[in-house]
Structure formats: structure tokens, C-alpha cells
Amino acid sequence: MKYFARIIIYSFVLFSLNAVSAQVVVDEVIAVVGENMIKYSDLETNYLQTRASNSDMTVTRCDILEDMLLSKLFVHKAQIDSIEVTDQEVENTMNERIKYMIQVYGSQERMERQMNKSLTEIKDTYRDVIKENLLIQQARSKVTGDVKITPQEVADYYNRIPKDSLPEIDEEYEFTQIVCTPKVSNEEKELIKDKLNAYRDRILKGDKFSTIATLYSDDETSARKGGELGFFSRGDMVSEFEQVAFSLQPGEVSPVFETKYGFHIVQMIERRGDMVNCRHILLQPKVSATSLYQSKLFLDSVQTLINKGEISFEDAIVKYSDDNSKINGGLVINRNNASARFSKDAINETIGNVDKVDFNSMQQGDITKPIEFKSELSNAYRIIKVKKKTPKHTVNLENDFDRIQTLALRDKETLIMRQWAEKLIPKTYIRISEKYANCNFTIDWTGSNKNK
User: Fold this and answer.
1) Rounded distance between C-alpha atoms, residue 335 and residue 327, angstroms
2) Is residue 353 predicted with pLDDT exceeding 60?
3) Rg, C-alpha atoms of the chain
4) Cβ atoms within 10 Å, residue 131
5) I want to staple 321 with a disulfide (CB 3.0 to 4.6 A). Which of 8, 44, 313, 326 is the partner?
């Protein structure tokens, strides 16, 4: 079954496309695996979301249902084997997923608006989904965790694909960058600290922390909630913030401290085991127009050195770039697919602020002039190099080995999962609604259970 590879991840799609699940449906149990039920509403939600996020419109409800059946079989096996998932593991995974979604949407506020839920409601809605997925992942790892694939197997897999079925890959780019972030003046930092200390004094004299956070905090999302961040554990925030937050007692207000996001004061609200709930007020120092312009001039000089051959672009990344991407050689990551590849139509969406650059006319190795863009904290400048430009082509081993390798590995894992399922199904109570009797499943889910 070509959609088998989606197993384990289907329920995570709910995070990004929750809007389609707002439809009202008449619910019923359409399948049972062991003690685990599949409802019609779950199938319909996953079907609509998969269609919305997958360009291959041949996916059917039967395809999705078989994915869900296999997921529930993994849950059933996890229950038999007494596999446990702790609340802390669930919370950590939840927070990682939330961070990713905030990056995709651009801010927590946009995520909440798109999903029509507050952050707390999002977490409450999907906590059970996360727990089930962690159970599935652990059960599945016992089945496919040791599966490896050789280069020869990848080539064999590719050669089995009918040549007229090989997809076309649009023109793609890979980029590296040198980033120069403007510096904030010491005078501006002192001004911000003075403001925060004044707010802190007012709070210690009786003003409500939540009121001042609402009025003055630069963290717009938490400001709407009186500065409240919700419960978090160690590893969820930057280390400087956590060090202060976890050192406080309920009701205590911290001194002013600095993180990469700016300057903060924090008030402890409540502690529950290894988690805390705090309010904070964030003030972000402003970058002056002069400082921003100096960043551009600096990159102009770096580009001149590169053009003269006095330094390579790669060495300039290491020596001059302010961005964390320098660890990976300045590689720009496509946040939509977590790879370094960008289609020509998606460059502006995924890199941002490069609409004035005609990448189509650039060749591999070309570099741009300094481009202003919105960084995590402020406007900044960067130079972008076209590291690799791959023309439109039919998938082949030379250009797309990693893609084919991923598909070949999934195909091998699918075979192993199917063999595993066929051994477990006769020992498991499985019931599927007669409405889906005509589904052309890859696995015979009911053949050994008709008399149960």
C-alpha cells in the first residue's frame, strides 16, 4: 500500500490543519482493534487533512483507515507489552511540537488564531494524541528500529520503478548565508533595564504584575494573558530564563535579567513537580537605523573581499556570520520540509524577504548583495550564495539518491510491518464496519477473525 509510510504521523497532522475538523459529523465506531476504537469522525478528520496536505489526490478513506488500523495494532501491542509513556515525555514532545508549529506560523499568536484555540487549549486537545503516538513509536521501533538499507538495495528499488512512473522534480536550489545582526547600543540596554526596574519597583509596592505585563510587555502573546506563560519544564525555555524561573518561590519577582530575546522580569505563579508556571515582562532593546546600516556596510566589505578572492564564501561564513547556521556551513534550512532544498516557487515563502532577488537568473556559485530581512529579534542583513542549482529533471539516482533511499527504506519497513501484522492479527480481536467491506486493504484484517 503506497500510503503505508504515513503510519505513526497521521495524528500529528491535526496540529497544522485543525480548521478542517470543524465539520459536524454523525459519529460512530467503525473499527475496533483489541480494546482500541476508531471513530468515523477520526477517519473523516484524517482523510480531509491528508487530502489538504498531500498533492496526490488518489488517497482514499480506505487508505487512511488502513493506516489507522495499523496504528491501533501498534497501540494494542504496546498495551500487551506494558510499554509506558510518562507525563513528562508527553509534555516534552508536546512542547517540541508546539515550538515547531510556532516557527511554521511565525508566532504563537498566529498559531492560536489559525487553530482557533489558546495554547493551553491546544495542549489539552492533543495531549492524548501525543501519548498514543509515543506508544506507537515505541512499539514500532521494536519492529523496524534495526532496519537498514544498503546502496545496492536502493538501486534495486529504483530499478523496479517503471520508468514512465518516475516523477518530475522541479528546479531546486540550496543556499548558504552570511548574516550580520546589528548591535544594540549600551545606552539602549541601560534604558531598557531602567524601565524594567521601575516596573519591578511598582510591583513590589503593590501594583499587579499582570496589569503591567498587559500594558508594557513586548511579548504580545503572553501580554494578553497578563504575562502568563503556562506550565513548562526544563529544556523548554532558553537556559538563562529557566535558571531564573526555577530559582523563584511562588509569588516572588526576579531581578532584571537578559536572554537573547531581550530583558525580563519574572514572577513565579505555581510549581508542580518538575514544572513551573510563571508570568514575565519582556522589553526588547531597539536597533537604531544607524546600527542597521552599519551591518549592511559591513557585509558590503565582506562581499568585496569574497569578490577579490581574498577569502572564500565558506571561510567568511565561519569568520563573520552571526547566525547559528554557521555551524552547518551557513546552510539555509527549508522550514516546510526540514531539508536544504527549495523549489523556485517556494523560495520567497520559505526564506522570506528576498522578493527582489531573481534567483532564476542566478547560477550555481553566484552570491547576492546584502539583503535586509527580519531575523528572530530584529531586522538584519545577509548575503546568500546559490550553493547548488538543480534543473528540472526526472528522479534519478545521481541527483536524488537521498530521496530514493528514504522511499526504499520505507518500502522495506512496510514489508516488515505487514509481516509482523499478519502474525499478530489472528491473535487479536478486530472488528471493521461492513461499510468498509469493499476496501482493498493490503492486509487481510478480518479473514482470521470472522468467527470472533
Assistant:
1) 17
2) no
3) 26
4) 17
5) 326
Q: How far is CA 140 from the centre of its chain?
A: 21
**How far is residue 130's CA from residue 210's CA, in Å, rounded to a whole number?**
31
DSSP 283: E
Cell 487479536 locates to 428
Q: How many angstroms separate the CA atoms of 402 and 416, rounded?
A: 21
The secondary structure element, H or E, covering residue 104 is: helix 87-105
Distance between CA 13 and CA 123 in Å, rounded?
14
Q: Is 307 helix (H, G, I), strand (E, B) or coil?
A: helix
- Find the Cα–Cα–Cα–Cα dihedral 124, 129, 131, 137, rounded to 10°: -150
| CA distances to 87, 281, 328 from 185, in Å | 44, 21, 29
Sheet (strand 172-180) strand order: 342-343, 172-180, 379-390, 371-374
| 222-240 core/surface letters (b: 16 or more CB in 10 A; e: else) | bbebbbbbbbbbeebbeee
d(CA 99, CA 376): 14
| CA triple 407-412-417, angle to 5 deg | 120
Q: Which residues of 394-409 are buried (b: 16+ CB within 10 A; e: fewer)?
A: ebeeebbeebbbebbb
d(CA 166, CA 392): 13
pTM for this structure? 0.65
pLDDT band at 326 (very low <50, low <70, confident <90, very high): very high
pLDDT tens digits for range 93-102: 888 888 778 7
Relative orientation angle of helices 313-320 and 289-307, to the nearest 10 degrees = 150
**Amino acid sitting at position 41:** S
Q: What is the pLDDT of residue 12?
A: 42
Sequence-ordered strand ranges (E) for 239-364: 257-259, 262-272, 275-283, 342-343
With H, G, I as helix, E, B as strand and everything else as coil, classify residue 432. strand
The DSSP symbol for 248 reads P
Taking the alpha carbons at both ends of the chain, their separation in whole angstroms is 26
